[in-house]
Amino acid sequence: MADTATAILHTPWDCRWSRFARRTAGDGKRGGMWDCIRTAERLPISESDCESCPHYEYRPPTEGLLDVVKARQRVAAKERLTRAVEMGVRVSLFVMAVIFAACGLVVLTTPLAVPFTVSMLMGAAASLMLGIWGNFRSHADGSFRGFLPPRA
Question: CA spacing 20 to 30 A to 35: which of 51, 92, 94, 140?
Fold first, then answer.
């Protein structure tokens, strides 16, 4: 009988312990494109290191998809929450505009209260405009700090 030799290619993208390296501008270390997370810390590795690694474990392609789905669900939940906060602020601004306009019109019945009425109507207009065109999100470049995070 003939013996058959099988060559197994250990690639970092198929290993259970390898992840893409996180590179930041201020980070002084320049490792490979991959990090090994088998130990408690992330160690930079190259593809040749992964080919000869005794701890290589094959990760099925569908296993990583569950992580992607969970990450997308977290992002969607965060986006829904910020959208709800933004809509709550807009609705409260519209309610304030209605209250300001109503107070201004009620007080208008006395002739000496015209300045108060004008200021109430101007407050109603400002509240209405802020409710329609207001920007409550931070800008991605940091030029404006709103109370909501920038869009992803």
Answer: 140
What would the two tokens of residue 63 be? 């296993």
> What is the tally of structural domains in the chain?
2
Does 140 fall in a domain?
A: no
**pTM for this prediction:** 0.48
Rounded Cα gap, residues 137 and 97, in angstroms: 22
- Tokens standing for residue 74: 């977290």
- Residue 72's domain comprises 65-133
Which residues contact residue 63 at a Cβ distance below 8 angstroms, ignoring those fewer than 6 apart? 16
User: What is the predicted pLDDT for the residue at 19?
Assistant: 76
Tokens representing residue 12 in the block: 């970092």
What φ, ψ does residue 7 adopt, rounded to 5°? -90, 125
